[in-house]
Write a structure and sequence with these properties.
The chain is 36% helix and 13% strand. The longest helix has 19 residues. The protein is globular, with a radius of gyration of 20 Å. The C terminus is likely disordered.
């Protein structure tokens, strides 16, 4: 089966299908023609009613000129499979494993850098714990799991799913009409303004969100999200288990500004933090400022990875 071409392409340029037969997993790939850094970069979008890899567009466009960049549409979103199946953190994490497998096939086994947005951070953290050899660093932008004071340290692989709510919403006569209401153009604009913390949003992202929400089956993964089935019950255990370098950042405006729970990892030497004056998706408001900050993180890692000259032994 080909990728879901009833949905618009989330990003321009080359795309490949990394899914198993009959369940396409669309991944947008940028390969610089010459020069630049050779270490690949993986970009992971968030989860909401109209999510897609298009949420990473400024980063995909910028870094795609400098290094190999891979940005999948997670299962249930964009041009990936939207069929009736269980949309869970496990499914999303396995999709990232498929992308990492593809990167290793194309570029060798060296570890990659990865960046995720919002709920996508939970899937990336799980992948990093499960295969630390494949990732050099991860950037968590506006990550879930740190709001309030209560942390999620449930059984491994558990979720926050409200089962009765999921049973109700997974019925097409209930979930599909609700989804259509939540993805009306004016409603999508409302939620984007809350995400940006401003009336000024990225209009191209809004248009993509409106269009991708019209694809057949687009309601299925979002009802798993609405019933909390895509939130990991053990996410703080995962965050605290990370041993690779982690850069966590967030904004000061909008609905995603409560990160009091980050004190659970502030004492970890591999974590560093940064706050941007803006909303939850900083590269749409100040792409140059965000890229400059992320480049500083990557440059520091490059310096640490660089071979150090051996000291010269002088004769007595």
């Amino acid at each position: 089966m080909a990728m879901t071409d009833t949905a618009p392409a989330s990003l321009p340029g080359d795309s490949i299908d990394l899914g198993p037969p009959g369940q396409p997993l669309a991944c947008y790939r940028a390969l610089p023609t010459s020069g630049g850094a050779s270490r690949p970069l993986l970009l992971v979008h968030s989860v909401n009613a109209a999510a897609s890899a298009g949420e990473l567009r400024p980063l995909h466009e910028h870094y795609g000129r400098l290094r190999p960049v891979y940005a999948p549409d997670l299962p249930g979103f964009g041009r990936s499979d939207r069929s009736a199946r269980d949309y869970t953190p496990r499914l999303m994490t396995d999709a990232l494993h498929r992308v990492l497998d593809a990167i290793e096939r194309e570029h060798g086994p060296g570890p990659v850098d990865a960046l995720a947005l919002s709920l996508g951070c939970e899937f990336l953290a799980r992948a990093a714990v499960e295969r630390p050899q494949s990732l050099r660093s991860i950037a968590l932008v506006s990550p879930t799991g740190f709001s309030g004071r209560r942390r999620r340290r449930g059984p491994p692989g558990s979720t926050l799913q409200v089962r009765w709510l999921y049973r109700a919403l997974s019925r097409p006569r209930v979930g599909e009409p609700l989804f259509r209401v939540l993805t009306r153009p004016a409603v999508i604009r409302y939620f984007l303004r809350r995400t940006f913390g401003s009336r000024h949003i990225d209009e191209a992202l809004w248009a993509l969100d409106v269009a991708t929400a019209r694809a057949p089956g687009a309601w299925r993964a979002p009802v798993a999200f609405l019933s909390a089935g895509l939130f990991s019950g053990d996410v703080n255990t995962l965050y605290e288990a990370l041993r690779l370098p982690v850069w966590m950042c967030h904004g000061t405006r909008g609905d995603f500004t409560d990160y009091r729970g980050r004190d659970s990892v502030e004492g970890c030497p591999n974590w560093r933090f940064q706050v941007f004056d803006g909303g939850a998706i900083p590269w749409f408001e100040d792409a140059a400022g965000f890229i400059r900050a992320y480049d500083e993180v990557l440059a520091a890692l490059d310096r640490e990875d660089a071979p150090h000259p051996s000291p010269t032994l002088s004769r007595p």
